[in-house]
Hints:
Blueprint lengths: L8 E4 L8 H13 L13 H9 L6 E5 L37 H6 L2 H10 L8 H11 L3 E6 L5 H4 L7 E3 L2 E8 L7 E3 H9 L13 E5 L20 E5 L31 E6 L9 H5 L16 E5 L2 H12 L2 H20 L9 H4 L10
Parallel strand pairs: 2-3, 2-8, 3-4, 8-9, 9-10
Antiparallel strand pairs: 1-9, 1-10, 5-6, 5-7
Amino acid sequence: MQLSSHWCVFLCVCDSALFLPVDFLRNLFSSTLGLGSAEKVLDALTLEGVAQYIKSGKCKNIICMVGAGISTSAGIPDFRSPETGLYANLQKYNLPYPEAIFQIDYFKKHPEPFFTLAKELYPGQFKPTICHYFIKLLKNKGLLRRCYTQNIDTLERVAGLEKEDLIEAHGTFYTSHCVSFCCRKEYSLDWMKEKIFSDAIPKCEKCNSLVKPDIVFFGENLPARFFTSDFPRCDLLIVMGTSLQVQPFAGLVGRYGVRPAGSPPHKTHRKLWIRFKKKKTLFFADPMLGMLGFGGGMDFDSDKAYRDVAHISSCDDGCLALADLLGWKAELEALVKQEHAQIDSKDKKEQPGEAGGAAAKASSSSVKPEE
């Protein structure tokens, strides 16, 4: 599942055609021996430089890759942070090991722990954060190509992103299906919600097998949409709330290395990566290529750095800072205020004791986040 915490964004511009031997050697010699030079897209490897690139009109396709860290300010724990992470607080379920709660084979034999946890974390109890609404603002501006998310909290959808805007790599609570291969009857979010909050183990009305939300458990295949080919057309990649250490999600950045369709072998496709994070780390999508100084890596400080920008802050603060530089800050804050007011209004109409207590559990620091 997700591996992330309170992280912000890195930006990178990179060459493609990585899988062509000639280009591989050319880039390898350039990066490791200093032969040749990489064309810079940014005037400065800073958030200001990124903002200028977006405002220039040359940045038309932005992809966001997000993890649990963009939802922590909403009150949803990430998975592996010491003491506060989800896995650190599962002792009450008497699991053989923490990850068992998301193992498909364990779930089929012992579904109770998962559904008890699901009641605590169920969609509708939390509000989207500034990060979620910043992504929605990118869509409103016609700049968002896709949002790839590791999260299962559906907050991207609550913020206004639609199915075609999202690649929910680890699935979603939005729909559920019977686990029986011969049945696979689909159930709605409301149906599953009623079962979970009545403390009933959801059973298929057709065959009486278990019904599971469409989140990807260990041992299950990723959604077919995960393999959508967006990255060759990406001008800017924004990475938020994920350490990019969990495969195959982390391997998505390797798709930056695909030559644009129809382009000649020597043609490279320029791209930019941004990552908001509380500290700088060097990430390599492919360990072997990383050892060679090539492919998927983020280089923030060397003399050869030309594509990577790390903005050291929380995710929400990073989005606010970038929005400010773009002249969008007031619009973003107004969007957050408006959408949260609508959620609160809807929440007040719900019966006491029902799920969906967004006002009760959502972060009160959505416009001025605290982490």
